[in-house]
Amino acid sequence: MGAPKFNPLGDVISGAIMAATSVPQLIAYAETVGYAGYRGLTTAGAPLFAWGLATGSPWMNSGVTSLTAVMAKTDLGGEAYVAQYGEKEYVDLVSAYSLYVGVASIVMALVGFGKLAQKVPTAVKAGFKWGCELGVLASALPNGLYAFGSSLKAAVAASAFGDVVRSVKTAVPGASGISGVANIVYAATHPQSWDIVAAAIFFASVSFVMTAKKFLPKWMPPGSEVVMATAAATAFSVYQGYEGGVVGEIPTVGSDSGISLFGGAIKIPIELMDVKELLNVPIAERCFGGSMIKLFITAAIFSGVNFLSIVGIASGFESDNNVPWSAPRELISQGVSNLTAGVVGSAPVSGSMSRSLVSRMTGASSQMACIVTALLWIYMMPYMSVMSPTPKAALSAVIVSAVAKNVLIPKKILALKGTDFIVGVGTGAATAITSPTLGFGVGCIIYALLNVQAGSPKKKVS
Predict the structure, then answer these.
(1) How far is CA 411 from CA 103, 130, 213, 404, in A?
(2) pLDDT tens-digit series, residues 75-89
(3) pTM above the 0.85 mark?
């Protein structure tokens, strides 16, 4: 088949569909990062615009995903950082981290890592994905089952589970993920502690999003079920006076703010961070034991791990549609979009499988489609206040719907045999209990040890 023939009208239509159907995800993933959901709306456009200019794929989309969100929050100790320093400083911290991830991506592309990334063992990738999805579930449950997510965390801290968490963290200081695992176990075993209204919104939204494809008209684009569930929850919140957690006020860029081009003839309503100030953010001192080396290594691992998402998406398009791709170019694209993300205050970004598949399905023919999406997100911000009363329980449902099936029945791990199964389960457990960065490293070590013990390394990897 090859690359599609350029169709500008098709790109505009596809870009508009993507812009509309992705809004709930933008807010939900910002909540997963650990800061106010509206920031997902205000910062999404610029990184995607930069991605559209740099990528060579007609369908690939990027942005903050469930994986980049949970990895950033874990690497930076999001909850503890916000509690100690406040949300504003956390936003600066996340933005600075995006810059480091961007630089790491570009450097790794220049030294040839793009091709090396395709050699990661399948068992490690499967286990890592499962472990990260457990982390995503742990991040979403507090706001899904409770009126305010902080109530679950407080309950866990005061219970026997809290004692276990503290013991594990004392023994393994890097085990930041154990708190999320404890949240899952506590919530599952204490349904009497749930908020009735929040839980009802959550389960109704999850059920609808996961089953809607069976009965919605075929002509409706993917993602429509997410928009419908979110809209229904928002309407309920407005008309019933929902008192649980909601998105809240969504600030807009003032008329005299943003970027002005050609003497003011063109205004781009995005706010830019002060890059000099971001470079002075004490990220190494506060999050990496004062070690710049540890910071750069963690940023490089973050970049490499998330590039695996791009490898999977691009390889799928190559096998299904005969669309060629360049690993170095896409890794550089990841770097450019992360540098842009840092400048506008966004968490790190990478390839999004769901959005990329929607782009292909809705008729995108070139990178113009994601550029249209980016521009719509930027210029439609003044109208996004309609999302202010949206319950966080509904946004949590959007996230859980994306990972629930694979968390409960991890088919790729169950398909592994022999030592590969041990590698997959070990990688997943280490990722969920410690952090994505440490978990990935542990998985690679387990793979190497088992294969050395077996006498000969297995060939592959996909």
Answers:
(1) 35, 10, 21, 12
(2) 999 988 999 999 999
(3) no
